[in-house]
Amino acid sequence: MRTFILALTAVALLLPSMPAMGAEKVSARTADKGIEVKPGTFKVLLRESATVKNKMIYLDDVFANAGEDKAGIVIAYAPDPGKRAVFDARWLYRVARTYGLDWRPMGVQDQIVVERKSQVITRDEIEDAILAALAKQGAEASMTLQLSNRMMRLYVPAGVLATVGVDDAAYEPRTGRFTAIITAPANDPRAQRHRVTGRAHKMTEVPVLNRRVLAKEVITKRDIKWLRVRSDRLRRDAIVDAENLIGMAAKRGLRQGRALHASSVQRPILVAKGSLVTINLRVPKMTLTSQGKALENGSDGDIVRIANTRSNKVIEAEVTGMGKVSVLPTGFTVMN
Predict the structure, then answer these.
(1) CA distance 110 to 87
(2) How far apart are CA 318 and CA 324, in angstroms?
(3) Cα-flanking dihedrals φ and ψ of residue 89, to 5°?
(4) Tens digits of per-residue pLDDT, 144-155?
(5) Rounded CA gap, 113 and 146, in Å?
(6) pLDDT digits over 28-40, tens only?
(7) pTM > 0.85: yes or no
(8) Of 224, 226, 228, 227, whose CA–CA distance to 209 is shortest?
């Protein structure tokens, strides 16, 4: 027994000292939170990802626990704003060996993705800047632009003004086509220049429905809202004046938010074909009435044919209201 204990003691003396459980492990996330790390205490780890603010990538952006004396070493250029760079295991291992870091990849799948912190300039902002430049060449301020690259957007570094400058612009009024050279941020001689092409379209504001309207339903002012539509997409019979829509009835069900056409509406039918109507005759000091049958549809002010329900004699009468028509004295005499 004594011999066995002495053997174990000898083995323990020959083995290198082991660190406390968990002493070698620290995540990049922990390092990012500002927890103080003593050089040599924790194992160097590859970060999962990194976002940098300036043009350089530092050793500490890629490796956690690189040490205070090495953290600020520049190891690569950062990608352009809005772009990202992927560094593979082979490149990372070379960097670690160059600067004496105790790190080696576990496999070829080890990598890090580095992104450049940036601001996004949207397509709408780009279009607004170009339209302001084209207005000086005859384009209307109410126009809308259609860029050839509909997915276009620009990126500028964080911490600078996200502005768009138009260095040059050309506009053809007949076709609406334009070409512009833009930069972002504006007035920055180091900014990259982009060539943008597209077309400028005239816009027309038209009344549309703010709800679905059923067939024969009368449209009121409360049913209308206004929408800007490209002029070249409007039909010739498109309704552009709300006065030509209010008080009209839908010939069929109409959807909301769409330009309406003259063929889609009609004046409300006050006298329906085949319905019984009241015929009025007004003469001095007397009003005479009779009953007839409408032979056709009629709206307010229309002249329609009316048949006597007894004699079947036909006269023409003016529609004056719902189920009501008016005739001249001669017509009323014929009716009777």
Answers:
(1) 9
(2) 9
(3) -65, -40
(4) 999 999 899 999
(5) 34
(6) 333 443 434 454 4
(7) no
(8) 224
The answer to whether the CB of 126 falls within 8 A of the CB of 76 is no
Collect all residues with Cβ–Cβ distance below 8 Å to 69 and sequence separation of at least 6.
39
Please say whether the beta carbons of 266 and 297 come within 8 A.
no
Pick from 272, 273, 279, 274: nearest CA to 316: 279
Helix (H) or strand (E) holding 6: helix 2-14
Which of these, 138, 209, 195, 204, lies nearest to 171 by C-alpha position? 138
Both tokens assigned to 232: 């070249």
For 265-289, the DSSP string reads EE---SB-TT-EEEEEEEETTEEEE
User: Would the pLDDT of 5 be above 80?
Assistant: no
Contacts of 157 (CB under 8 A, 6+ apart): 53, 54, 81, 116, 117, 118, 119
45 vs 96: CA distance, rounded Å? 11
Query: In the prediction, which pLDDT does 113 show?
Result: 96
CA distance 104 to 204: 65
Domains and CATH numbers, the chain: 22-116 (2.60.480), 120-201 (no CATH), 203-266 (3.90.1210.10), 276-335 (2.30.30.760)
| Omega before 81 within 30 of 0, i.e. cis | no
- Give the pLDDT confidence of 225-264 residue by residue, as tens digits: 999 999 999 999 999 999 999 999 999 999 999 999 999 9
Residue 3: is its pLDDT beyond 90? no
Give the tokens for residue 62: 């890629």
Residue with tokens 């490149």: 91
